[in-house]
Amino acid sequence: MSKIVKGIAASDGIGIAKAYLLVDPDLSFDKKQISDTDAEFARVTKAFDASIDELSTIKENAKGRLGDDELAVFDAHIAILSDPEMKKQIQGEIESKKVSAEEATSDVMNGFAETLAAMKDNKYMQERAADVKDVSKRALSHLLGKQLPNIAAIDEPVVIIAHEITPSDTSQMDKKYVKGIATDMGGRTSHAAIMSRTLRIPAIVGSESITADVQNGQTVIVDGLHGEAIVDPSADEVKEYQAKAAAFEKERAEWAKLVDAPSKSKDGKDFEICANIGTPDDVADAVKQGADGVGLFRSEFLYMGSDHMPTEDEQFQAYKKAVQGMNGKAVVVRTLDIGGDKPLTYLPLPEEMNPFLGYRAIRICLDRTEIFKTQLRALIRASEFGPIQIMFPMIATLQELLDAKKIFNECKEDLQKDHPDLGDNIKLGMMIEVPLAAIYADELAKHVDFFSIGTNDLIQYCFAADRGNDSVSYLYQPLNPALLRLIKHVITSAHAHGTKAAMCGEMAGDQLALPLLMGMGLDEYSMSATSILRTRSMMAKLDTKKCAELADKAINDCHTTPEVQKLVKDELGLD
User: Is 37-144 assigned to CATH 1.10.10.10?
Assistant: First the structure.
């Protein structure tokens, strides 16, 4: 009898194949005392060098399948193995305790990973613990002379079942053979989820028990649309899901025809569906998916991908490349949004009890104006090559907004001494992610050209629930009636002053949220590039008048999130 295992839908699609349990070899070792410490440390050096060579090969083979952001993970792993301080600590363990290379490597690297994992207030650093464990495992495999699973050697259709998928695992996957992924661990923002979406492999993550529920060779169906895995399905179930998979692929082929189509509702109202990007290289995929523009360029990735504070010219070249790549379509750049879960190694920030509510984003920029001015000057210069729009993150008060605009205008006036009119075409906006800003939207709207609602942070701040904390994940409720009421207030306030209302959080690409947002009059929807065509297709089937009625019912007649979900599903005819 088949068994259904529920998880988190991480990558759309349906995959059916035999289970391939991604199980590591036994990397245990006997503890022993050694006498020749130099020879033992030489083994460490040899194992690290072999690991670096292996990672370099994996990265090279992955080029063409993964984007620059994903490939950069391997550079981070190589950097860990190349860290002289790490090696020095391992050497110190060997020399002081006379322990083996295996024991010293394991102790030092596990200690480092545990330190990172213990950073409860820093989700980004917590996630780096998995990277250190991955690197440690690779180094140990070379020390012990044991081969790690070779995913690249898979030559038949499989569904990969694993406790956790590492970046190096995903990079070796060939979509021709890997039909699905299901893991115990992970969320929608984990490496496995992001890479599976990039590779378009159906995936569910965070099931907690899939490795215990599946045996090697069993047939498994991965339903990445609903976040389920069906283990040992019956012949009828296989047939049913094969039909669902074919229907989904047919639907995806239909979406592909909409690349050059306008983003319109059924009754002819125009909207914009844009892409969220992290680097200028992501522009190509945004264009390929028919984006109406870039609604969110996360500029912090230019800083996080560098070992130094990016210069004005380095930033100018990046922004220029992005703007030129969009061929006249607008690029909205969010100014530096670091702090919280996004630290910079070369810009030490103070230790904080709650960094998400601390010294971050616009608060840093208004305090360290030399950093802010460098970025603004680069953006103003790049605006000569295409339409750039600038938005300020984490604005809480009107004064912060006015201060940010003042610094922008100072930079523009300075540049215009030699280049008259430069930057005059730039539109200025702000993120609505702090609840106070959402409440005060009617006043803030007078001072900007556009709002962009960042629902990921707005939701966690409204519900006082860390979105990275599994224990309170039930409070991530984008369809909560009270939150919908607040979002409608923001949109209505924007329109009252001729200000555009956009959204760049996960909610913008949520199919249940789409009719509600259209009904509220949201102008622009920015999302991952892979969601654009699906959203455009769905938008073309929706009538804005009916959507407005639906939104009013959700806000005024519903009292809980499940009630709103049922209301929308009934309206759309979804199961």
Answer: no
Tokens of 152: 């690249």
Contact between 14 and 226 (Cβ < 8 Å) = no
Query: Helix, strand, or coil here: 240?
Result: helix
Q: Which CATH class is domain 3-23+150-234?
A: alpha beta
User: Where do the domains of the chain lie?
Assistant: 3-23+150-234, 37-144, 267-543
Q: In the block, which residue shows the tokens 């707005």?
A: 458
Q: How confident is the model at residue 121, as a pLDDT?
A: 57
Mind listing the pLDDT tens digit for each residue in 329-363? 999 999 999 876 667 778 888 888 888 899 999 99
Pick from 113, 509, 462, 131: nearest CA to 295: 509
The answer to whether residue 64 scores a pLDDT higher than 80 is: no
CB count, 10 Å around CB of 38? 9
The architecture (CATH level 2) of 267-543 comes to: Alpha-Beta Barrel (3.20)
Tokens 């201060």, residue located: 403
Residue by residue, what is the 3-state secondary structure of 98-134?
CECHHHHHHHHHHHHHHHHHCCCCCHHHHHHHHHHHH
316 contacts 384 by C-beta, under 8 angstroms: no
DSSP H helices, 228-361, are 235-256, 283-288, 300-304, 312-325
Long-range CB contacts for residues 398-403, cutoff 8 Å, separation at least 24: 398/440, 398/443, 398/444, 398/447, 400/362, 400/363, 400/366, 401/430, 401/444, 401/447, 401/448, 402/447, 403/366
* pLDDT score for 341: 62
Half-sphere CA count of 96, side-chain side, radius 13 A: 7
Of 485, 392, 393, 486, the C-alpha closest to 439 is 486
Catalytic residues: 191, 504
Mean pLDDT of the 287-297 span: 96
In terms of Cβ atoms closer than 10 Å to its own Cβ (0-12, 13-18, 19+), residue 36 is exposed
